[in-house]
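Re: your question from the hallway

Yes, I did run it. Sequences:
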Amino acid sequence: MYWCAALAAYVLLVRLYFDDRVHVRDKPLTWLDWTGLASIVLTVAGVGAAVVQASRARSAASAASEAVDRTLDALARADLLVELQALRQVEHDIDRRVGATDWEGTGGLLRTWRDTGARVCTALAQADSTDALIELIEGSRLTASLTTVKLTSAQGGGDLIALTKKFRTEVALVGNHLSTRLSELRIDPGGTDV
Amino acid sequence: MSEDRLHVLIDRLIATTTTNKVKWVEKRSGVAFELTTDSGRRVMIDSRDDDGDPPYDLYIFDGNGKSLTTVLWSTDVTQASVPLDHKLHRLYKLAEDAALGISSEIDDLLNELPEADDIPF
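Structure:
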């Protein structure tokens, strides 16, 4: 429809250009002239409407994209929250297991700390690779790995408290930072309170 | 213990395992393998994460069960980084094969399977 109106407007302009009549008011306008004028008005209105529609479509697409980003971000933060809570659980359990001289349980917690810590570090690095917590956790993961060796070497016959002392110390250091990070995530896991 | 001596030790373990001169037994549900010498000393090669994969560590115990030394995988990740890691990896696989009889089982399986009649070309 807009193309037809534009064509009619073009025809009118050509007629006016090649016509001897310079002053349109001197001669009565024919029905063809009126049609052309109406076409010009319609064309301008149509172009304006198209511009407005395009602008709205861009806004809608942009809004949809932002909504998807917010949802993904919220999901990632929820996953991180779960993993951080898992680390806190290890921090809570390790002293109990060591105190009970539970060698097998302690070994399991060491593995859990390593595996969960790896996932946490990956998630933190995606948000901010310079996050200080990453270095702390990576250090404690290495300590966990070496502590596993110590436990295996002791064959259940050593002092479990002494063997795990360094690891438990590093876990406590990480735990201090975890408290703060968990609070931040709970307050703003994508914009709403948990 | 110097690294050279460690290499000598592991090389000897690899050689004697390959020629079936030592007997490895399965420990810790198949993620560690141990051999015992005539004097009662024990050598154990262990998958640190209990999953059969690296890192692998080598433990040496005296006749009373006391740990003498441990040869550690150089990192806490699966990738071998230094020559010692590669030797530990090889020793673990050889010990696993010897303890579980994997090669023998495969040989028996091959003997059981019928010959393939089809010639592809």
